[in-house]
Amino acid sequence: MPNMACMIVHGRAWSSPLPSSKHRFNAAALSSEISSTPGTSREVARIYWDLDNLKPLPGPQGLRALTTLKECMATACSAPDSLSACDVELHAYCNAATLRRLSPTLRAALVSGQGHFLTSTANFRQAVDQAMTASMLEFARLHGSHACIALASGDQGFAKLLRYCRSLGCRTVAVCRGRPYSGKGRSSRWARQPLQAASHYALSWDDVV
Q: What are the NYN domain coordinates in residue numbering (predicted)?
């Protein structure tokens, strides 16, 4: 796993060591950005992971992705120390074909109910997208400005949904393919992709896995 993560914060590239059991995100720049923004302390946080589009790596790396996603989410969507990884729910979605290819260990972790949940759909086009959209809309409408929502997906078509969640007052995080290098031009191009641009914060999937 890389030891640096690049997160786009309000259109700017921001880098910090990835969180681990010994070191969570604690960059002063990000903490200051969040704490100075009114209303950024959120009571509920949920990650929606599109397993059909962003597939986990096999073995222990797949399990580490669960922890990394939740820790990044806790940092991006809360005032300092007000939300921890254990407060974040992770809801993974996939079709039946993808489910069969998941490692037994990862599948067991996702159905454990300990902050992880797995929904499997039929093998027809848009089934996963429809299930995720329905759940995300319900969550956003129910909690509004008290919610923080992360979407981990390679499907840029979800940008409209994230924008709608933002309009309800939700804080939003996009986890997307690609690497937003620190060079100004490359970071800007990556950040302007529809899903990244629709969210408050964007994180590269390469840094998660």
A: 47-176
Backbone angles phi and psi of 180, in degrees to 5: -85, 85
Domain assignment present for residue 130? The answer is yes
Structural domain span for residue 162: 39-208
How does pLDDT run across 61-97, given as a tens digit for each residue? 788 888 888 888 888 766 555 678 888 999 999 999 9
User: The domain spanning residue 124 has which CATH number?
Assistant: 3.40.50.1010
Quickly list DSSP for the chain: --SEEEEEETTEEEEEEPP-SS-----HHHHHHHHTSTT---SEEEEEEETTTSPPPSTHHHHHHHHHHHHHHHHHTSSTTS--GGGEEEEEEEEHHHHHHS-HHHHHHHTS-SSEEEEEE-SSTTHHHHHHHHHHHHHHHHHGGGEEEEEE-S-GGGHHHHHHHHHTT-EEEEEESS---SSHHHHHHHHTSHHHHHSSEEEEHHHH-
- Report which of 147, 114, 121, 111 is spatially closest to residue 50, judged by C-alpha positions: 121
Q: Is residue 151 assigned to a domain? A: yes
* pLDDT, position 184: 60
Portion of the chain with pLDDT greater than 90, in percent:
41
